[in-house]
Amino acid sequence: MDFNDSPAEAAFRDEARTWLEANVPTSEELEGLDYIEQAKLWQKRKYDAGWACIRWPKEYGGRGASAIEQVIFNQEENKFDDLPGGVFLIGQGMAAPTLMTWGKEEHMLRYLPKLASGEEIWCQLFSEPAGGSDLAALRTKAEKDGDEWVINGQKIWTSGAHYSDYGILVVRTDPNVPKHKGLSYFFLDMKSPGVEIKPIKQLSGDANFNEVYFTDVRIPDSQRLGEVGQGWQVAITTLMNERASVGGGGGGFGFDEILALARQVNVGDAPAIEDSAVRAKLADWYCKRSGLKYTGYRSMTALSRGEIPGPENSIGKLVGAPMMQDMASFGMDLLEMTGAIWDEAFAPLTGMIQAAYMGSPGMRIAGGTDEIMANIIAERVLGLPQEPRADKGMPFSDVPTGAG
Amino acid sequence: MNFEFSEEQNLLREQTRGFLAEHCPMSRVRSILEADDKHDTELWGKIAEMGWTATVIPEEYGGLGLSYLELVVIAEELGRAVAPVPFSSSVYLATEALLAAGNEQQKESWLDKLATGEVIGTFALSEAHGQPTADNLTATVDDGKLSGTKIPVADAQAADIAVIAAKSGTDVGLYLVELDQAGVTREDVRTLDFTRGHARVSFDAANAEALDGGASDWGVIERLLDRAAVLYAWEQVGGAEAALEQAKEYAMGRYAFGRPIASYQAIKHKLAQMYVNNTLARSNCYWGAAALNSGSGELTQAAATCRVSATQAYYYAAKENIQTHGGMGYTWEFDCQFFYRRAKLLSVNIGSERHWQDRLITAVVNSKAA
Ligand SMILES: Cc1cc2nc3c(=O)[nH]c(=O)nc-3n(C[C@H](O)[C@H](O)[C@H](O)COP(=O)(O)OP(=O)(O)OC[C@H]3O[C@@H](n4cnc5c(N)ncnc54)[C@H](O)[C@@H]3O)c2cc1C
């Protein structure tokens, strides 16, 4: 066990840091651009210099770097605050690995470089009104017509659909077999005729997710990933990578921020950081954050030895999201009577604490709820039995549904 | 960068686990508990023969000169087995104190005997309820004579020597005392884990030698406890893991309402929570082990982090393991009790969860100030 860089890793870290220092966009460069334009500017710059998606093979727009080099680059990049880029998470973190596992060579050559360069943004068209945690209960249907499929139905909670170029899509191709067996997986041009996107306003007041309606949308059969009826397996590839990529992030409000706050504000006449109840809470969060960090290092070691990241990655989100919620709530308590003020000019950290409070409930739901994550750990890591399922083995068309 | 144990270390783990499965099954722990013995002397002899007590002692002092990464592997396995031996007292505390603060002659006199296990050591700090501090410490050494009372002293009846925290004037320091002498009285005290003997030890002008090879201030005690905390944390993680396994095994086999209780979400989520806690604690223990092994400046932070998370993980796993067993879990006959007893013993032995949370935040704040 050696937590230090090897000489080769240290050299790589230096190279990455030097490049980042010289190339991270300045606030002047970003001024006047919207978030997407900012993200695209930074992504393109990384791509042109060979620093985008560095673990991917060169012919797909990457650098052919190792897993450890990817970690090192991420660590160095994360040292710069507020770099734009979250919009590429689904495409680069979920769609790309799915394409690499299930796609054809021509798909990879066509789509991966544009994902790496940030020219094209992808979204995830999985959840439906009737299929969330129980994703395989989705109903959007696809019918074969010559070399094409005709899609009808509705997706919901699709983050970034309104600015995406492509989407990964799971649909029902056979309603007469048990639910997991009747699904197929496609990718889709979001500009296709018959795709209609309607924003949904979130609890926080933002509108980053959407309803997406499909009316006779045609997708060429060549955009199918996996066999007809194999969609569930392909979706699992996406979901495994989702857990891995959602887990790490969270940016913005974290332990360092709550610690800084506890040093600034008082409890009674002394800094809050001297209060033992405050210290106990901070210590627990520090331990969790540190535990996640080193768990991440351990999975990276496994990755670098060629092992595939398994369901144990579910713990990142399961621990991280509720922790952010609790830290945000406690952060406002520390402010006492001004805690609820979400006025960027007045609130500390330009309102980041309140934003984390309002955003964290969504993190506990998106990408698999806390409860589903706990089920995954119980069943796939510990090997405990599934709960009895009312729909087991039943043709999808006979499965009972709620009133909603 | 490599965050895993080496192949040799994994081999050592297998070997250690196999050895303990044979020589320290739960039935053996039970026999010590029921006989009210202080520790398993036969097992101790075998452990010493295996060389575990010699792990990190340098070869020049009769040890194996291995690293702390080997020692934490052994610690975890001892924790899994809830081994009734004075290993933590002798190895994590007494040996470490000599290594850190002993002068050359003291190291030469004692380390080889600690290495072979023929001498057992312990450490004594606490004197009363509440947290020991430089101010409230009353044991004093005057002209080489120690007076005062320490309670509880872990494994005191088994030990030949003890490292004592005491004052000389206002200076706090560590003193080495041979326990088999006229000025020392040992009386049993009953703790909730009676597979490990504890005592009240009174010193009445007992001969004591300063461990003067290191600094002499409160910091020497804190640094000793930081090092021990990493090793304790590995034992705690081992125990927490074993408690999870026991809970899982029982839940798979026990049926209620026509199905295994392991298929009920309330039970599944309990076990998933154990897994999450244990994983975070283990990963923090990796950090602790690496910091201990490299003599890193981050040791205090790493030690307090792994100590807090391991303490919490073991407590949760031990109590919820009982809950998962239902009425059976609350019986004397079932082995759930061993984890529950040991979890608490280890958690207060070198300072409570609260104490280590506090130490962690002090270290974090200091590191940010630097
Ligand atoms: C901010 C945000 C962004 C999102 N972005 C996307 C996106 O880009 N693309 C996309 O496809 N989807 C997206 N989603 C949807 C998300 O994946 C689903 O909301 C999530 O999987 C839960 O499904 P649901 O909303 O239908 O809730 P339900 O499945 O109805 O769950 C309701 C409650 O029941 C619990 N529950 C359900 N089943 C079980 C069970 N078996 N055991 C125990 N408890 C259970 C859940 O944990 C939850 O507490 C997003 C959601 C959010 C909040």
Features:
A: 404 residues, alpha+beta, Butyryl-CoA Dehydrogenase, subunit A, domain 2, Butyryl-CoA Dehydrogenase, subunit A, domain 3, 3 domains, 4-stranded antiparallel beta sheet, 10 strands, B: alpha+beta, Butyryl-Coa Dehydrogenase, subunit A, domain 1, 4-stranded mixed beta sheet, binds flavin-adenine dinucleotide
In short:
Chain A has about 400 residues and is an alpha+beta fold.
Overview of the molecule:
The complex is a heterodimer of chains A (404) and B (370). By secondary structure, chain A is an alpha+beta fold. Chain A folds into three domains: 7-84; 123-234, Butyryl-CoA Dehydrogenase, subunit A, domain 2 (Beta Barrel); 247-368, Butyryl-CoA Dehydrogenase, subunit A, domain 3, CATH 1.20.140. Chain A contains twelve helices and ten strands. The longest helix of chain A is centred in the last third of the chain and has 29 residues, at 276-304. Chain B is of the alpha+beta class and 370 residues long. Chain B contains eleven helices and ten strands. In chain B, the strands form three sheets. Chain B has a four-stranded mixed sheet, covered by helices on one side. In chain B, strands 2-3-7-6 form a four-stranded antiparallel sheet, with no helix packed on it. In chain B, strand 2 and strand 3 form a beta hairpin. In chain B, helix 5 (87-101) packs antiparallel against helix 6 (104-116). Chain B starts with 6 loop residues before the first helix and ends with a helix. The interface between A and B is large, with 51 and 50 residues. Flavin-adenine dinucleotide binds next to strand 1, strand 3 and helix 12 of chain A.
